[in-house]
Write a structure and sequence with these properties.
about 150 residues; mainly alpha; 6 helices; about 70% helix
Length: about 150
């Protein structure tokens, strides 16, 4: 019985981390004018913005399900889904050539993953993107530990 309670606490933590990831993603959506307009080359909203919106909504729904249901199935989906999102967050660097602002892949990676402001761009809050990445890594770790508990 104690093992089930311990496992359930990991699922609750995993779910709450996904809700925190939702909050971070919403902060990015609301504050990153570069994401909204593809660095001022298109009117609001750029298709990457919609991708982040989908990630945010799935994180909220998945986080709530995992935290409430304490179900191994949802815990596994949370781990797999978070791994996919983490991979996509890093793979987003490969889209640098579609931005039409003359950034190299390393410059775009610096813009995305830096905790300090990258000069020359519209308003955004540095550090939110790497924070989101870290949150998904934590979801994977906590979920994997919870799934190992019997």
């Amino acid at each position: 019985m104690a093992d089930k309670k311990q496992r359930d606490s990991y699922f609750v933590t995993q779910g709450l981390l996904l809700v925190v990831a939702f909050i971070t993603a919403v902060a990015i959506l609301l504050t990153d004018n570069n994401l909204q307009t593809d660095f001022q080359t298109v009117p609001k909203y750029f298709y990457h913005w919609y991708g982040m919106l989908v990630v945010a909504l799935i994180s909220l729904i998945g986080g709530a399900l995992i935290a409430v249901k304490h179900n191994t199935f949802f815990g596994k989906i949370g781990v797999i889904g978070s791994a996919i999102v983490a991979i996509f967050l890093v793979a987003d660097i490969a889209t640098y050539s579609s931005l039409n602002v003359g950034l190299s892949a390393s410059q775009f990676a610096g813009y995305l993953f830096s905790f300090s402001r990258y000069d020359g761009f519209q308003h955004y809050i540095p550090g939110l993107y790497p924070l989101l990445f870290i949150e998904y890594i934590l979801v994977i770790i906590v979920g994997a530990i919870g799934l190992r508990k019997k």
